[in-house]
UniProtKB/TrEMBL annotation:
CDD domains per the UniProt record, alphabetical: GlpE_ST
Chief location: cytoplasm
Catalytic reactions on record: thiosulfate + hydrogen cyanide = thiocyanate + sulfite + 2 H(+); thiosulfate + [thioredoxin]-dithiol = [thioredoxin]-disulfide + hydrogen sulfide + sulfite + 2 H(+)
GO MF terms, alphabetically ordered: thiosulfate-cyanide sulfurtransferase activity
PROSITE patterns: RHODANESE_3
Protein name stated in the entry: Thiosulfate sulfurtransferase GlpE
Location of the active site: 64
Family the UniProt entry places it in: Belongs to the GlpE family.
InterPro entries in the record: GlpE_sulfurtransferase, Rhodanese-like_dom, Rhodanese-like_dom_sf, Thiosulf_sulfurTrfase
Organism: Alkalimonas delamerensis
Matches recorded under NCBIfam families: PRK00162.1
Localization per record: Cytoplasm
EC number, UniProt record: 2.8.1.1
Physiological role: Transferase that catalyzes the transfer of sulfur from thiosulfate to thiophilic acceptors such as cyanide or dithiols. May function in a CysM-independent thiosulfate assimilation pathway by catalyzing the conversion of thiosulfate to sulfite, which can then be used for L-cysteine biosynthesis.
């Protein structure tokens, strides 16, 4: 099974329905500077917690800078048993043009 691609618009729509978890794989500084509200900062250090906290049936949208790195991370989550994983096309670069972001580590 493979991950799927998802648009910024579809991600926002799924978030409005509380139907997805956002996994932001960017570096600490970029995440702190601005991320999707409620996004989980997914790093090597937080991966085990992420897997433990989220049921494998939880839909996950992986977000990076431009939608490239997120594809590898999305495939990795599929290999870890997550059934519904997406890579957000355009990444945060595109999201920030269309939607607000939250700063800080929250």
């Amino acid at each position: 099974m493979d991950f799927k691609h998802i648009s910024v618009q579809e991600t926002a729509s799924r978030m409005a329905d509380s139907a997805v978890v956002i996994a932001d794989i960017r570096d600490e500084q970029s995440y702190a500077a601005g991320h999707i509200a409620g996004a989980w900062h997914l790093t090597q250090a937080s991966l085990a917690n992420f897997i433990a906290k989220h049921d494998s049936s939880t839909p996950v949208v992986v977000v990076c800078y431009h939608g490239n790195s997120s594809q590898g991370a999305a495939q990795y989550l599929v290999q870890q048993g997550f059934a519904e994983v997406y890579s957000m096309d355009g990444g945060m670069a595109l999201w920030q043009q269309q939607h607000p972001v939250q700063s800080g580590h929250g």
